Amino acid sequence: MCLRSSSYTSPKPCKHLADYKLRHAFDGYDSLQNCLKTTPIGRTRVDNHNTKIPRCNFCNGYLGRLYICLMCSSISCSTHILLHTQSKSGHDVAIDIERSELYCCLCCDQVYDPDFDKVVVSEQIKGSCPGRSNKRRRLDSGMELDLKKSKRLIAMRDGRAKSCYPLGLRGLNNLGNTCFMNSVLQALLHAPPLRNYFLSDHHNRDECKRRYGEKLCLLCEIGALVSAMFSGDRSPYSPAQFLYSWWQHSSNLASYEEQDAHEFFISVLDGIHEKESKVRNSSKDDGDCQCIAHRAFSGSLRSDVTCTICGFTSTTYDPCVDVSLNLDTVNLSAAEKTGLSTLSGCLNLFTRAERLGSDSKLHCQNCQELRDTSKQLSISRLPLVLCLHIKRFEHSLIRKTSRKIDQYLQFPFALDMTPYLSSSIVRSRFGNRIFAFECENSDSSAEYEIFAVIAHSGMLESGHYVTYLHVNNQWYKCDDAWICEVDEGIVRASQCYMLFYVQKLLYYKANKDLSCNASVESR
Amino acid sequence: MKHSVNRPPTPDGAEDQGNEPTLQEIINIKLIESGEKERLMELLRERLIECGWKDEMKALCRSYVKKKGRNNVTVDDLVHLITPKGRASVPDFVKAELLQRIRSFLMSAAL
């Protein structure tokens, strides 16, 4: 068990608990170890191995909260626990039998002790058999951002440009139902890691042509696009060459029909990765891949499948470049009177433990039988750039229909992903005990700032995508060839389809370099 | 933290109802012994989370703690606060489902 993580603040013990610890140290806790019983889903209770059910010494009651005294193991109910401590001096601390939580009888309140929680958690882990493979994946943030070079580029600005527009804003012409492409490109080209990569000429087009001689390279095309966007020329640009390149790569999607922006996004990242892995001749798995697409967007999802009978959990990790969320329409809590769907609601839904139906039993290694299972997702490693995809398009294979969900979704501009991390999710499974989680990744921050929103309007077949970009404290709407400043209220009210967040530290650093006026900085 | 000590009622020693367990107790013991109580509790917890009841109770607790201040609230306070509201706001369909489960358990256990 590792040391407590500093980011987790634990409450101080009360005077009585502190006294108890001084006098008895871990004696009470150690004797408890044999009496703890964990249910498969993670609740731990105190089980004295008595055949009888626990009853209060004073009133013989068995309902409600029952406490077992740490000193003499006598059981009292919540009404009579005070009597016990009054009748026996020094018997101040007890344990809630149902929940395995410490209770101070004199303070009449729950108290917390990391040492106690350590005992409980080790029993919980012992109870569900060992055998989970926790590979500690570290986010490799070894990105060489050659900012000096990009600074030079910015200095040479075209005088034609509207001087107060930040660099990089340029409209993209619609080449025939290509708003899905334009919207994603706007977001991608303004993602700080990607933008910097191409602006710093990390993929040199001449060298690429010389070395590999291929006529069509997706990376070269993106590079050309970035140069065009940041050239200072404000007249709308036609990404025809890029479109052609992409058609070569994803020939199944090559048509003038309206496509799904998310599908396009995935295929572009895939194209970048393919080219890069061809170049480097490497076949590393996505988690360690160093191509710019993965360095920027790759994260890792953890999936825990728990047997509901024995508690054995099997954990798998899958790399991901984005997170697709279902709208939390069904489970709006009654407390939210306005019936508002929020991003945190969707993320909560995504990381909620889900009981898989009895018709999809899985084989439990421990029980050696098919069992009902519970599955829970969490994010074990956050990417530099977090892309959240809201699943608004429902395709029913049974009914052979598709429909769009127009439900408004409220989303924040600043996002803290801590509650959805594996460390938080697993910790709460143990009842929010105070202990450090092995995979706790303190190198990367969990705080994000939004920089792009792709919004969809209209119907499934005939809709339109626009992108809202946040540059230098100002929101801009990029509607194909037209770019204009908009108020943040417009952005908040839009029907978001894809949200792009970047790690806060990167965001402020990146914005600093792009400011037109040297003095602009504060928020 | 000043706290007027609640004086619980002096236990009535004569309240020993003999050694006859009531029907309720018998049922409870049977539920626990067979492990059915644990399963029912899990089911109940699941349903209460799904329908938003848990979130509602959490929100109540949060607003109370905000009002009183974090260091002036005990677990006992919170329990007394949400118990009546909690009991009253359990949705009917949850009650119905659990009653059904208990009924079928009793029928199978009565044999």
Automatic annotation (TrEMBL), chain A:
- Swiss-Prot/TrEMBL catalytic activity: Thiol-dependent hydrolysis of ester, thioester, amide, peptide and isopeptide bonds formed by the C-terminal Gly of ubiquitin (a 76-residue protein attached to proteins as an intracellular targeting signal)
Q: Name one GO biological process term.
A: protein deubiquitination
Q: Where in the cell is it found?
A: Nucleus
Write down the Gene3D superfamilies for this protein, in alphabetical order: Cysteine proteinases, Zinc/RING finger domain, C3HC4 (zinc finger)
Which molecular-function annotation in GO is an example for this chain? cysteine-type deubiquitinase activity
Q: Name one GO cellular component term.
A: SAGA-type complex
Give residue ranges for domain UBP-type: 37-130
Question: So which residues are the signal peptide here?
Answer: none
Q: Which SUPFAM superfamilies match?
A: Cysteine proteinases (SSF54001), RING/U-box (SSF57850)
Q: What keywords are annotated for this sequence in UniProt?
A: Hydrolase, Metal-binding, Nucleus, Protease, Thiol protease, Ubl conjugation pathway, Zinc, Zinc-finger
Tell me which residues make up the USP domain.
Answer: 170-504
Entry EC no(s): 3.4.19.12
Which family is it part of?
Belongs to the peptidase C19 family.
What protein is this chain from? ubiquitinyl hydrolase 1
Species this chain originates from: Gossypium darwinii (Darwin's cotton)
Automatic annotation (TrEMBL), chain B:
**Compartment list:** Nucleus, Nucleoplasm
- Protein keywords: Activator, Chromatin regulator, mRNA transport, Nucleus, Protein transport, Transcription, Transcription regulation, Translocation, Transport
Q: Return the annotated region ranges for Disordered.
A: 1-21
Its main localization is nucleus
Q: Which InterPro entries match?
A: TF_ENY2, TF_EnY2_sf
Q: Does the keyword Transcription apply?
A: yes
Provide the Gene Ontology terms for cellular component: DUBm complex; nuclear pore; nucleoplasm; SAGA complex; transcription export complex 2
What range does the record give for the signal peptide?
none
Q: How does it assemble?
A: Component of the nuclear pore complex (NPC)-associated TREX-2 complex (transcription and export complex 2). Component of the SAGA transcription coactivator-HAT complex. Within the SAGA complex, participates to a subcomplex of SAGA called the DUB module (deubiquitination module).
Q: Which family does it belong to?
A: Belongs to the ENY2 family.
PANTHER family the record matches: ENHANCER OF YELLOW 2 TRANSCRIPTION FACTOR
Biological role: Involved in mRNA export coupled transcription activation by association with both the TREX-2 and the SAGA complexes. The transcription regulatory histone acetylation (HAT) complex SAGA is a multiprotein complex that activates transcription by remodeling chromatin and mediating histone acetylation and deubiquitination. Within the SAGA complex, participates to a subcomplex that specifically deubiquitinates histones. The SAGA complex is recruited to specific gene promoters by activators, where it is required for transcription.
| Protein name, entry field | Transcription and mRNA export factor ENY2
